[in-house]
Amino acid sequence: MLARSMGLASDNLVGVEMVIPSGKQGAEVIQIDENNHADLLWACRGGGGGNFGIATSFTFKIRPISTVTIYEATWGSADWQHVSELLSVWQSLTPSADDQLGSVFNANSQKDGTITSSGLFIGSQETPLRQLLQPLFGIGTPKVTIQTMPYLDAWLHFAAPPDPPRPDKFSSVWVYDAFPPEALETVHRFLANAPISQANIWCLSWGGEVSRIPTDATAFYHRDAQFYMEWDSPWTNDTEEGPATAWVEQFREALQPYVNGSYINVPDRSITDLRVYYGDNLARLQEVKRMYDPENVFHFEQSIPLT
Ligand SMILES: Cc1cc2nc3c(=O)[nH]c(=O)nc-3n(C[C@H](O)[C@H](O)[C@H](O)COP(=O)(O)OP(=O)(O)OC[C@H]3O[C@@H](n4cnc5c(N)ncnc54)[C@H](O)[C@@H]3O)c2cc1C
Questions:
Q1: Which atom of ligand 1 is nearest to the CA of 298?
Q2: Which residues make Cβ contacts (< 8 Å) with residue 245, sequence separation at least 6?
Q3: Ligand 1 atom with least separation from CA of 18
């Protein structure tokens, strides 16, 4: 929720200690920063996970933050019919809002019936925040709370305990142009027909500081989106796996005319072209891979290939 004001966590990465392969069997520890192995620092800012070596220490630029205002709005089953309208209004408000606002939109399947939006505004401005979001809060009859608190309390508030492990399929996209009515209708249709009630979409407003950094300045490519969207469906017994994964994959297919790329932190094995994650930065990531891991010691299903 701070990305629009402070950039990505990886934009604030200034140093890494890494164990890299050396020769056929060996390893060496290197210190990476802007002056040493700068190409590897570039790669670690968005493309590092498991591809080049083992990171043993990260150094981040830190930024001051004190009071924040958080909001949460929850709509129940009676309002689920408004899901397209809510997403439409949310996408028109939050990606263009003041950079101090980071906002999430989360809609569960019609079977579940819950829709939520939550967010964080840096500062103690409850009234302007309520006014900004009034077009959203005015749809249906949501339960809305707005509270001002120290940032650490907000962090603890949003950092829910992790769900117990469960089988699940995720996928994700970047929405560069606000969804037109047909795309909103597609989202509605998939959520209405989801086979598992816990299936959901989760969207995060983008832009602000993230979009002011050039797409080739770091390995993280998808900076010009209006918002990020991921969706997932868990399952509990084996017979549900097929319908749940098909729903996730068909949803991805149906969204293709309206979206761009995908987020590497939500790896989807139905994606075979890694440019979907890394865009035009893939070629440079491969150069860095050839330089630091020419034997491809670090490889997995969707790792950066040598060529
Ligand atoms: C419920 C859930 C919620 C999530 N929410 C978010 C979110 O809000 N935002 C977000 O960005 N992502 C989110 N993710 C994705 C998650 O942050 C990424 O998958 C991330 O890569 C996990 O890192 P890890 O080290 O914990 O995982 P791992 O699966 O252990 O590692 C991911 C990759 O990094 C490699 N790796 C691990 N440790 C090192 C190391 N020391 N050095 C080099 N490579 C290493 C692994 O080999 C692997 O390829 C979520 C995932 C789940 C399951």
A1: 47
A2: 169, 233
A3: 42
**End-to-end CA separation in angstroms for the chain:** 36
- Residue 32's Cβ-side half-sphere holds a number of Cα atoms within 13 Å equal to 30
- Ligand 1 pocket (Cβ < 6 Å) reads 49-50, 54-55, 265, 300
Q: Map out the domains of the chain with their CATH numbers.
A: 3-63+280-292 (3.30.465.10), 67-258 (3.40.462.20)
Whose tokens are 């005015």? That residue is 138
Determine the number of helices (DSSP H) and then strands (DSSP E) in the chain: 10, 10
Instruction: Name the pTM for this structure.
Output: 0.95
From the CA of 265, how far away is ligand 1's center (Å)? 6
List the pLDDT tens digit at each of the 307 positions of the chain: 999 999 999 999 999 999 999 988 899 999 999 999 999 999 999 998 999 999 999 999 999 999 999 999 999 999 999 999 999 999 999 999 999 999 999 999 999 999 999 999 999 989 999 999 999 999 999 999 999 999 999 999 999 888 889 999 999 999 999 999 999 999 999 999 999 999 999 999 999 999 999 999 999 999 999 999 999 999 999 999 999 999 999 999 999 999 999 999 999 999 999 999 999 999 999 999 999 999 999 999 999 999 9
The region, left, alpha or beta by phi > 0 then psi within -120 to 50, assigned to residue 150 is beta
Mutation to probe ligand 1, out of 52, 158, 265 (largest number of atoms < 8 A from CB)? 265
Which ligand 1 atom sits nearest the alpha carbon of residue 56? 41
Q: Closest residue (by CA) to atom 7 of ligand 1?
A: 265
Residue type, 71: Y
b/e sequence 220-245, b meaning 16+ C-beta within 10 Å: bbbbebbbbbbbbbbbeeeeeeeebb
Closest CA relative to residue 176, chosen from 253, 118, 91: 91
